[in-house]
Amino acid sequence: MGIRKLSENVERRLVDHYGYNPYFANRMYSLLGDEALDLAEADLKPVRKAIRINRLKADPDSILRRLEKKGFTLERINWVSDGYWVNGGPPSPRLGATDEYLLGYYYIQSPVSIFIAEYLNPKPGEVVLDLAAGPGGKTTYVSQLMENSGGIVAVEPKRDRVSALRSNVSRMACENVVVLQTDGRWVSSLGLTFDRVLLDAPCTASGLVSNHPKLKKRINAEDVGSQSLLQRSLAEVGFSVLRRGGTMVYSTCSLLPEEGEDIVRGLVNKEGAVIQFAAETRQGEYRLREGFDCKGAIRFYHHVHDTEGFFVCKMLKP
Amino acid sequence: MQDAETLKKPSLRKPTDNEKREIYSVLNSASSGLPAGYRLLIHELRYREVLAFTQEETMFLAETISNKKNVYFAGIFAGSFRKDKFKLSLDLVEHLYRRGYWTNYVILEENHSKSFLYGRNVENGFLKLVGRGVVLVLNSEKDVIGLGLIGENSEKLVNLVDKGWYLRKGH
Q1: Which of A6, A232, B66, B92 has the fewest CB atoms within 10 Å, i.e. the most exposed one?
Q2: pTM beyond cutoff 0.80
């Protein structure tokens, strides 16, 4: 009675005070308990802005100097390379309208997205698949980490996004990328295999509430179910085109295990994927939070990590 | 998964001898050229786009995929053919400049740089001019801001393309 009462109180507060729909409030409480209120409170504010310096075109010290001269206050993010928190800036130019941005010297990017590309650990000369590239934040960083060598196939089905992807690839001087506008589920018919696969899957975006508060009302069981089916299909395709001994990183900006842990568990049980642990990364020093009943997977939260909510897991194909 | 868009013929192909001649002639007229090992492919669209590749793997992926699917973009955008004339792209010229294969450039003073980035031609205001014809345009901080044309004995820089264009129109 007492526990039920507490649960009702938290869920009611998430609905009445923070504006979540009852389904989302119930899911948040069942996953995080009372901590759901900390997350809801954090999500009232935007996540901290961050940038990644593009070493393919710029020397970090000179870009930092130039941005600081323009009035931006930057702070090194100590758990990723080339990432900087933007603690303040002038009213004009905005971060996305400076000459340095236009010239491709940096990318406005969440530290988790920077982390995901680093976690994939791509090496020069390899062949990499980015199965849901979006506008190319991770693709362009993978290209940088590969020192513009080897090849990356960046897949994006949406017309507006694929156009932004091409634009960003050129702006950031990435020369090893092949951009393909298609449904990622079609990729297995290409007859190619890859050393590494990155799948930052389309999702309900339940970890992005701070950026899109309307999601509090919108997320529902039906949406979670349909996204989960798509994620499962994409993950299976991604794993099928991975060479033996290759690595796949699966991520989503969702809080819900149907879109994270369950997808990974499916690959482990059905395809024999072996989860790789995060100990090798600097994230290990940064308040690591494990996935729900999924040892080796990582979860990021706004109220803990100052970033969007994310699920990230690295797997090996034996 | 079925895909109705599967192609009957590849969307990328090797350049013809005439196309190669035209591309190299444009590069040669600016005292430039492609470094050894670089490859070109033609992307058949409403007009012909030229893509340059520095990496064999990237070109292999692009060619393999184009046998089955229309590749949206690959490698470096080197330029395009309008009728039979090849028009160099800023992306390729900037790439060549960074590697020391492009020598013609002009450095503009600050106000002229701003004006150029708004798509305007500029007169005078050159801090340094090396070569004539098609020149890479740099600002006083040596950032690449566009591509221009300066005729013999002229002090006018014609704006061929500038980085502001990318912001205004995208690719």
Answers
A1: A6
A2: yes
